[in-house]
Amino acid sequence: MEVKDNALEYVLDYFIHQQGHILMKMQMNRQDTRIRNEVLAIAKDQFALLKIEKKDIERYLDEFEKYVWGYYILNELIDARTISDIKCYAYDHIRIKKNGKRQDAEVRFRNEEDFRRFVSMVATKNEINVSNVNAIQRFADYTSNPDFILRFNISTAWLNMSDVPFIHIRKTPKKKKSVAELVRRRFMTAEQAEYLCDKARNASGMYFTGKGGAGKTTLINALLEVIPPDKSVGVMQEEDELFSSTHPDMLFQHVREVQGEGKIQYDMEKLARNGLKLDLDYYILSEITGCEAAAFSIASYTGHICWASGHGQNPRDGLMKLADYVKLATGHDYNDCLKMLTGIEVCVFLKDWQVHDIEEVTGYDAVNGSLIMRKVELPKPAGPPLEEEEEGIGDDE
After folding, report:
1. How far is CA 124 from CA 21, 131, 176, in A?
2. pLDDT in tens, 116-146
3. Which are the contacts of 244, defined by CB distance < 8 A and separation ≥ 6?
4. Distance, CA of 347 to CA of 320 (rounded, Å)
5. Which of 123, 187, 241, 334 has the fewest CB atoms within 10 Å, counting from its CB?
6. How far are the Cα atoms of 21, 220, 244 from residue 247, in angstroms, in the given order?
7. Which residues, 6 or more positions from 342, have their beta carbon under 8 angstroms from its beta carbon?
């Protein structure tokens, strides 16, 4: 194969292996025209050294820009608002989740080497070290796309049975959906929305349960905006999925990992414990999956208005799993753990990106060792949620 056929690959390899520091500088200063011009000038010189004709260099530079400043053949998938997840299993095996439905993507890398190079480029420009020592890396790109935060999960060929890298990109919208928009899209009914907004303002606690992608984060994000402005709110989360630009007294914190060593510096448990020391009215954990449940149960039992999410098959199952987490984290008797959750007044079960069931916790049954729960009878959405025509994705964790 002629050098000309591999010109882009040669130049990309040159940047990855010899000019990685420039790529990192570019990543940290994406809008800096001077750095952009510097990178393009170096690339142009490299193409010239490969004896590429002047009439072809501009075409190669255009491909180079898409690769370095964007995400190459995945750019259109990343820009598409109806796509929430992109998974690359191999150079010719790319899957997407579009409007909540999994399907094959209509793009592919040139070959296996092209795919491996792409994974290396993604890691390099995001200042991530991918190696056998760091065979799994999770990180986020907050700046390259105007509409989405891109969350990456990369595992190396050394770890995967396929002997090729795996890369998963989850897109988190930078603009949240309002309560009114969720009603319009049949995520919930107007009656459910009115009830939940009232409870967001007045309930002693709320828990949101369902499987991954059910819509838990979407709903919490919408309800954050109806919390009274005179209340102090602390939000602790794994990643920056919950946010607000309108509430005057809302603190957001996220987990911080030490890159390169695979050790968590500030995990959810530490954030949750620290939240107990803050002057908060609302104490919110994005998702409970471990020892942070101990601090959450303490906050709920001592008068904070507590919100959290977790996996479950119905409202009661979700709260029972939460009690399991509390037991594992504290060592307390299971029944005592259930009692500590009586401050969770409302439990919302979501399924297939819709509010499916709502139940209220009305007390604790000491004889049977269970929470006393009452189903809230409200109209449910008539039909499946409306798909979007490139207006926003309808899927979250």
Report:
1. 9, 12, 30
2. 988 988 887 787 888 888 899 888 888 888 8
3. 224, 225, 250, 252
4. 11
5. 334
6. 39, 14, 6
7. 361, 363, 364, 371
Tokens of 324: 């399991």
Q: Are 46 and 7 in contact (CB under 8 A)?
A: no
Q: What's the distance, CA 394 to chain centroid?
A: 13
The listed range with the strongest mean pLDDT (64-78, 263-277, 361-375) is 361-375
CB 326 within 8 Å of CB 289? no
CA distance 180 to 184: 6
Question: What residues are paired with 66 via a beta bridge?
Answer: none
Alpha carbons 341 and 207: distance in angstroms, whole number: 10
CA dist 142 and 145 (Å) reads 7
Residues 295, 272: contact at Cβ < 8 Å? yes
Structure-block tokens of residue 5: 């056929």
Mean pLDDT, rounded, for 347-366: 96
